[in-house]
Structures are given as C-alpha cells and as structure tokens.
Amino acid sequence: MKPAYHYEIHLPSNMDPNKKYPAIFTLHGKESNEKNMFGLVAPLSEDFIIIGIRGDLTLGAGFQYYELKSLGNPIREIFDRAAQQLETFIGYATEKYPIDLNKRYLLGFSQGAILSMTLALMMGDQLKGIVALNGYVPEFVKTEYPTRSVEGLSVFVSHGEFDTVFPLSVGHETAAYFQKLTPNLTFKTYPTDHGVSEENQQDFVNWLKGDAGI
C-alpha cells in the first residue's frame, strides 16, 4: 500500500528489535510542514517512535490537510477525506513499524489539533491519547460524524490566552466538550498568541511521558 501522505519518521537510536514502542503522530498547522512539528516532540525521540505527517495540499511555502471556506469553516468534502485518509495512514504505519497498538498518540497544532480531536472521536479507544494545541472541534463533527466513546482516552488541550486566530473562548468550549466525554482531560492556557510556548511544550512532554508510563 502506498500511503496517502509524505511523512518523516524518527526511530529511537537504540531500538530493541523485540520491543514495541509508543508512537506519536504529529499533525502540523496551515502553511507549515512535518519538520516544524518535530522540534516540539524532539525531547521524546528516544522513548517514542515519532511520525510527522505532511498535509497533501500545498499552501504558500507549506502544506495543509484541508481547505477552508472561511476561518473556522472547513470545506466539508476535503475535511472528510483528510480525516479518513489519516485514520488509514495510522493503521498503515502501525503495521509497518514496531508500534505498540495500545500506546498511539496524536499531537496536533491548529489545523492539526482540529484533526487530532476529530480522529479521537472517530477512533475512540484505538488511540491512547491526544495533545491538541490551539484548535477546536468542528460542529459537524460533533453532530454528524459516527463518533466512538473517548471515555478511556487521555486528552491534553491547551490554548493561547491571546490567540488572535481562535479566541481563548474557543479553547474553553473545547475543554468543556471533552470534559463531558472523558475524566482524563488536562486543560491549560498560556500567555501566548497562536503558538506554543516553552512552558506549554514542557507540560505536554511531561504529560506524554507520564501517560505512556515512561
């Protein structure tokens, strides 16, 4: 099978050939790429298999997974295709590499966070957890997608207090939505715009280590 996405994989340097490893799939924001995401999870690269997935649509000097009608309003058909292709890709990578089926994580920023949360609702306990940085769940995903229980899923949601793309209220709404669905929610805000601070990074790195039992 030829994967739908170009991707970059980082394997722990001293891999045990008889061991399965936890994995982090990273999803970037609009007009970015998989290399920009690796810096956020590099501190975890000796304990996790890290797979950076590049969006298959070009945008400026970077890439995206889907197009928008307007800010916060994805083109439904393209969004649906991206969500389905990403779910298939996660299955492909899990078969190809020594990934622990019970310790698969998604980590996304902005558009990547939106898709990470969507995939969590689609895949349920097939995932161990997600880290969603400065995103939201589209209304049509909440009301029209065939979602699965995320009660056992670990969810880390963070948002910039001065986010000029998605206001802080969006972060609070997203956290409130997941709080009703899982007891395993961590929600944090940081004094940033639409970005990821060092403190934010340290917090989710520690959270991922703890959740994966590392």
UniProtKB/TrEMBL annotation:
Alphabetized Pfam families for the sequence: Abhydrolase_2
Record has Metal-binding as a keyword: no
Superkingdom: Bacteria
All residue ranges annotated as the Phospholipase/carboxylesterase/thioesterase domain in the record: 64-208
Key words, A-Z: Hydrolase
InterPro entries attached to this UniProt entry: AB_hydrolase_fold, LYPA1-2/EST-like, PLipase/COase/thioEstase
Family per record: Belongs to the AB hydrolase superfamily. AB hydrolase 2 family.
Protein known as: Esterase
